[in-house]
Amino acid sequence: MSERIIGSWVSGADGSPYGVTNLPYGVFRHDGREPRIGVRIADQVLDLAGAEEAGLVLAAGALRRPTLNDFMALGRPQWTSVRQRIVELLTDTAHRAAVQPLLVPLGEVELLLPFDVADYVDFYSSEHHASNVGQIFRPGQPPLLPNWKHLPIGYHGRAGTVVVSGAPIVRPTGQRATPQGPIFGPSVRLDIEAEVGFVVGVPSPLGDRVAAVDFADHVFGVVLVNDWSARDIQAWEYQPLGPFLGKSFATSVSAWVTPLDALTDAFVPAPEQDPPVQDYLRDTPHLGLDLRMAVEWNGERVAEPPFATMYWTPAQQLAHLTVNGASLRTGDLYASGTVSGPERGQVGSFLELTWGGTEPVKVGGGETRTFLEDGDTVTIRATAPGPDGTTIALGEVTGRILPAR
Ligand code: MN
């Protein structure tokens, strides 16, 4: 009988925010070979394609694909059994000899976009963010529009411009308003939106609704999102149909998809909703996620948005986006909307952090900023409570601004 150890036999895993209670999925390239699915353990990647080829884990061949989509389509029972098997492989020393050769140092791999993005939806679910934006753009009027507490506001974004963390972001060019009339040129109010994205694994047929209680049957996991936003382009174009070119030039996601199974200890009661919501938006229990986010601007931590303060929950968002019968596809990504807490140091956009560009902030390198300049780098990270008082990390989403073309 093999020796069972409490933690992992992988060096550095115990006590790491990427220990065996985390195990996020990604897609990596190593040694110029084809993209492979892997799972992160400490500072290494377990080659899951290799593990499935060796018969160490069974997933109907879905782990031998260049993206996570086929695996995500398998559904929750398979997600959970594969995860349990990976934990076994990484904790039971009986498997060490077979598994060790499948570990690749993180520093040697290139991380790729982990899933083919099907449809992309972006919500607007932070009451603090919506109120701040309302005050900045519509001073003297009620900060929230009349519909805001009755439904999770959202729009359909551009799936084809979702890029993986690390991809450079070219400053967008477009129209913006000036007192002399609209002009055309590079955006001068380029911003971020720190968000959390939910990745759909199991699809739903056209015409069906997905109930809020079925959230965990459809949603595979979570990514960090930076919804880059050109505020000047956005302000001129957004009425009457909503965001368009001010958003669609790029949306960055983290390379690691944290499975919901790793976030069991992170679910917390969401803020109470008043007025009461329509029946289809009732989620019982009404739970959000206690993700603690951090925004770094050229290396300086400028904000710590608390995801637990979000007014609308991911289960409510899923119920809302399908209530009209719209189908879900494997690879659908829906993002929370900018995450902002009640304090200035908790906001998820520079629009709010600098109050519409009127209050510059200190960033790394001893400089000050209102909006992004060419060469700037923004990194968003997050952690969440794990089992037994531990902390897990949700990777990072980073991007550097290149000059307009
Ligand atoms: Mn957004």
From TrEMBL:
Binding site for substrate: Y124, R138, Q234, Y238, T338
Active-site residues per Swiss-Prot or TrEMBL entry: H129
Annotated GO MF terms: fumarylacetoacetase activity; metal ion binding
Highest taxon of source: Bacteria
Keyword Magnesium attributed: yes
Pathway(s) the chain acts in: Amino-acid degradation; L-phenylalanine degradation; acetoacetate and fumarate from L-phenylalanine: step 6/6
Residues covered by the Fumarylacetoacetase-like C-terminal domain: 122-384
Chain sites annotated for binding Ca(2+): D122, E193, E195, D227
Entry keyword set: Calcium, Hydrolase, Magnesium, Metal-binding, Phenylalanine catabolism, Tyrosine catabolism
A Pfam family assignment: FAA_hydrolase_N
Positions of the Fumarylacetoacetase N-terminal domain: 22-114
EC number(s) from the headed UniProt entry: 3.7.1.2
Cofactor dependence: Mg(2+); Ca(2+)
Binding site for Mg(2+): D227, K247, T251
BP GO annotations: homogentisate catabolic process; L-phenylalanine catabolic process; L-tyrosine catabolic process
NCBIfam families: fum_ac_acetase
Database matches in PANTHER family: FUMARYLACETOACETASE
Protein name stated in the entry: fumarylacetoacetase
Organism for this UniProt entry: Micromonospora halophytica
